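Budget justification, computational time. The allocation requested in the original proposal was used primarily to generate structure tokens for proteins on the priority list. As evidence of use, we reproduce two of the resulting records. The first is shown immediately below.
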Amino acid sequence: MATTAKKKLAKKKIKVKEQELFVWRGVNRKGKNVSGELPANNIIELKAQLRKQGVTPSRVKKKPKPLFGIGGGDKPIKPRDIAVITRQIATMLGAGVPLVQTIQMIGSGHDNGKMRRLLADIETKLSSGIPLSDCLRDHPLYFDDLYCDLVASGEQSGALETIYGRIATYKEKAEALKSKIKKAMVYPIAVLVVAAIVTSILLIFVVPVFQDIFEGFGAELPGFTLFVIAISEFMQAYWYFGLAGIWLALFLFKRAHRNSQKLRDSVDKNILKLPVIGDLLEKAAVARYARTLSTTFAAGVPLVDALESAAGASGNAVFRDAILEVRAEVTSGMQMNLAMRNCKIFPDMVIQMVAIGEESGAVDDMLEKVANVYEQQVDDAVDGLTALLEPMIMAVLGVVIGGLIIAMYLPIFEIGKIV
């Protein structure tokens, strides 16, 4: 059963054709002339949508795209944007605003053209009587299965307002956690890339100037200087091969990582073994697992299905496989805390909290507390890592740049001693 669930989670990326925006005119049931803009895959689909709304279309055409992007306002829809509109929907539903009106108001006031079209399509389908969860499933690039399942649970229980509040909190916490991980990864990489560029410029353009000066000395150069000059000559002759090789290696790795589940699993397994970074990613995976399971379980999703969602949201193949093993054990009747202990990957504190939750009937509350603790630990770890890396990176830069400068000035110091 765990293998079946794993295959289900190992989905390929779905390419969804971007809908086009159409401008239309027509006559409504009262005989009044009406007009507007709607997204659709083609004109036939758009006319069908209009007829469902009681509008007889008289003229439909594609909206012309703005020249050179002027006035377009189209930007990619990011997960953070989905988190923002989720919170807006939760707030407006909590204020008593009807769902269709909520979607309409948020869409009409959004500054991103793609988001406006996305919400307009959802509003149109909602108006024709399609449930919100089904409307969202038509846009899998922006609303994953977990999101849609939670909305469906809210619709079935009649507590969509409460469920949307939980979804909004979940998305906000998930994006905050993702931002912290990126902060820990991007900063040192960016500094090291800049350092590599500066060092390459020195070796290719600056060292040759000193080399020309040294040729006029007629004296034997120090070994360290000769070593740096040899590196400089190699860089001058083959820098483009090195650059092309780095680009090709990154391209091939990215492509293989995207197409090979085995490679992705291997990377996830080995990255957890890295010092400092591995511990940070492990805490982040535990936080995602606890947050997802708490949100889905509290929303009324059965525990087995909630564990499957948590496995997909864990963000690491090692934890995904472990959670699927827990799901298989729970399906066979074992308590979740015992199944987690058998996996030998979850911290003792998490297992004990789950055991207390199972005994008291408050698993979702205990998991929420676990998520809060581990999210705070990730936050503290990122701050500590940043504070630790700054002096280390400065030291490395000082050694590299300082070493180049010393190598170039050693011959001058030697001449000074002779004089």
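The second record produced under the same allocation is shown here.
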Amino acid sequence: MLSRLYRYATITYIGGGFGDDGVHNVLEAAVYGKPVVFGPVIDKYIEAVELNECGGGLIIDSALEAEKVFNRLLQNPRELRETGEASRSYVHSKKGATAKIVQYIYEKRLLTS
């Protein structure tokens, strides 16, 4: 249900980025073209790393920094829009990944004995 609620947000926060296990699924929010904010534990999650690199994901180190980022985005509609567009563009740039994976499995005959 959470993945569908991101549609109604202005800015999204994804949990897990402050724990040992790392950030949760950033794509669920990014697909809706929302700025995605998360904690710094992202090393094992290529989507979070790449989302940050393209400008759609914003890493925070504390609750105070989160407040500053949220306020900055809310007070700057252009940055809010551009960050959200970067999120959406990132997700759409990965379109077709499933077909590529299935084709690879088929070509390598990985499902046959």
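A brief technical remark on that second record: Strands lie at 12-14, 36-38, 57-59.
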